[in-house]
Amino acid sequence: MAERVQAGVIGCGNISQAYFHAAKTFDMLAITHCADIDRKAAEAKAKENGLTAVSMEELLDNPAIEIVINLTTPQAHAEVNLRALAAGKHVHGEKPFAVTREDGRRVLEEASRRGLMTGCAPDTFLGGGLQTCRKLVDDGAIGRPVSGTAFMCNHGHESWHPNPGFYYLRGGGPLFDMGPYYLTALIHLLGPVKRVAAIGGRALDERVATSEGARGRTLPVEVNTHTAGVLEFHNGAIITMIMSFDIWKHSHQPIELHGTAGSLGVPDPNTFGGPVRLCGEGETEWRDVPLTHGYTENMRSIGAADMACAIRSGRANRCSGNMAYHVLDIMHAFDESSSSGRHITIESTCEQPAPLPAGLEEGQLDEEGKKVAG
Question: pTM for this structure?
Fold first, then answer.
């Protein structure tokens, strides 16, 4: 019987409860400890979820913890990952993988040197919606993918997020905040990116928060809040992508893929479910496609659970650090293309993540699900 993998969470902020809740679904993963720079925040989450609140140092020193789930703000991602790796822990973190390419490479190099796994959100592509889309693409439902679109457009986080300031600082903005969902979904469906061309800008140099907890606070804007670009994938597909915090209302679909034999409507990559729509050769209207895979609810932590299964089985984890670094590299290339006025060839690459098998029982992520010792 395989022993469950214990994990500890560092960072008990806005997103953490989704991780604590969903982790209980998976047989191979057990979150047992949590830490935060605000000890009261860690204690509150520990009480709510039946965990043990500790300091970050105590969590990293605990030999029973094999995975650190890093839910800190983007500016701290690389530092916390490096400390966890130095403590001998595998790391799975929130996106982005790091703020700079240099920090991202340091994390990958340290993990390789120590023989440890790295992983990173988003893990939404492991949900039923995007896994169904992957099966359709792999089965040839749209033929050879030729083109597509990806849109994430809203007016920012200051109207609802209790602490929106960091979304407009270096490492934030629509591209670094939401781009990982869209880029990861596209890499999952099409494979790695070859080059990009883009233009970016910002509507405002500062914003005023209207959310509860931050109302009236002035938020400096350091990053582009509207980016439009084109990605060429190694498989030849050309995708137009717009990421914006400067749009009040729009009618675009999150992602569409168009191939030689049909078109595919891909669901919001910030969700785990559908709808999935298909229009094949000779058809004139979209039709809904039943989902072929489970995990359609909010399953944040499924990536960490997949890492736990990978640790026990010896396979690669699907939300790999290499893919997350490739996403980071692409996002920086968008900004570089905008400032230089030229195409940017992407130097990094990654393996297209393996699809999940269809028909898995809830709590399992491998076709040959191993029994777990409690």
Answer: 0.94
Rounded CA-CA distance 96/104 in Å is 9
Using alpha carbons, select from 71, 174, 153, 104 the residue that is nearest to residue 327.
104
pLDDT at 127 exceeding the cut of 70: yes
SS3 at position 354: coil
pLDDT of residue 163: 86
Band of the pLDDT at 373, cuts 50, 70, 90?
Answer: very low
Counts for the chain of helices (H) and strands (E), in that order: 9, 19
CATH number of 2-124+299-319+351-373, picked from 3.40.50.720, 1.10.10.10, 3.40.50.2300, 3.40.50.150: 3.40.50.720
What pLDDT, on the 0 to 100 scale, is given for residue 162? 87
DSSP labels, 201-264: E-S-SEEE--STTTTT-EEE--S-SEEEEEEEETTS-EEEEEEESS-S-----SEEEEETTEEE
67 backbone dihedrals φ, ψ, rounded to 5°: -120, 135
What would the mean pLDDT of 271-283 be, rounded to a whole number?
A: 96
CB atoms within 10 A of CB 214: 19
